[in-house]
Design goal:
Elements (H helix, E strand, L loop, with lengths): L5 H9 L5 H10 L22 E5 L2 E4 L4 E4 L14 H11 L10 H13 L5 E5 L2 H16 L3 E5 L37 E4 L4 H8 L4 E6 L15 H11 L3 E6 L10 H6 L5 E4 L10 E5 L1 H4 L16 H14 L2 H25 L3 E6 L2 E6 L8 H4 L4 H13 L2 E2 L5 E3 L6 H17 L1
Parallel strand pairs: 3-13, 5-6, 5-7, 7-8, 8-9
Antiparallel strand pairs: 1-2, 2-3, 4-10, 9-10, 11-12, 12-14
Amino acid sequence: MNQVTATERRNWAEGSLAFDESRRRIAEASQWLAGGVSSNFRLGISPTPLVLERADGAYLFDADGNRLIDYYLGMGPMILGHTPRDVIAAATEQMQKGLLYGGQSGPETEAARLFCDMVPCAELMRFCSSGSEAVQCALRLARTATGRRVIIKFEGHYHGWFDNILWSTTPPAGATGPVAGSKGQQTTTDEIEVLPWNDLATLTARLARGDIAGVIMEAIMCNQGAIHPRPGYLEGVREACTKYGTVLVFDEVITGFRVGPGGAQALLGVTPDLATFAKAIANGFPVAAIGGRRDLMELMTQGVVHGGTYNGQAVAMAATVAVLKRLRDPAVHALMAARGTRLMQGMQSAFDDAGIPAVVAGLPQIFHVAIGMTERPANWTDLHKMDRARYVKFTTALLRHGVRALERGAWFLSTEHDDDVIASTLDAVKRVLKEI
């Protein structure tokens, strides 16, 4: 990893980083890219969306020449940091043998074996190219298996940007029905219902009517809030789904291989019928997966269509094998957990010492910071108490001090966030809290 220079440390301490070149390049790119970006989740970032030149370990280097400690981590995938030598070597070796075969490869089979060995629910699996696609496959399997149509999802949970599931990801307080997440979205809601999460009685009562094909949820609500399930909640959901013949789907796009070798289901000891994975599975390569019960997964050989030109692409599969071989080692997660715990505790102490109400909660590998709150949230409704405007001021000031963190409150950790990086981050947090 490159050494941080004395000048960079001084600029971090002074909070003097500027982003004028990124701003200029985004404006230039807007001539050809809508908004200058290729994802709406990169729009509207304060003070500007960044243009990045390169990355190394836990650091990003932007168009203005700034070195930034990175807690975006590509929105979650870069669990081994930006330049893991083993992953890059595996992908490079495969590139010499060909990129896309339109057929199967050895690395794909090996990646599938590793996946099934690590994930409790995965008796069989399939590779996809994005988490959104994997979710669509899970919904199709649930409806086929049960002969029912209605899917239950939960407020604040995100399962991709497709019309049939982009509902109530950030609904307003007091919403009583599904809230569309996009203009132009198909408005038919006959096959989707939205319930409050962490409320077992309400879910069980709805399942008892016997017409629900599937329940999909983040087992740990990481997209918003990094909220843990209440004691007994997941166990109760599992029992109710089994009792009423409903397929239980865990969306582990964020938690999968990030919170432990077997994802949230292994960490929490509750096994779903199906689960979707992406992000950390391949450390930046466009790989996703669905795994689950053999009888459900075999429906894809019995008329349930699942396709994708780039599914199982050989270079991405070679990278996946290298990533999973590392992440199956509990010691890798234990080290991240120790460093992440230090960061979480240090940040909470900094907020407390500054007299700013805030809750730092979640898991060491993926946690959430909520300014304006004094108690840990249990669901989306609780998160309405967060002072989001002040939090954006916080992340904007952090950026000028050399630390890049997501404006929605999530902080992702990698194996490359070592003790020095954690110490530098905490120094920046303390300085910024005095400013805001």
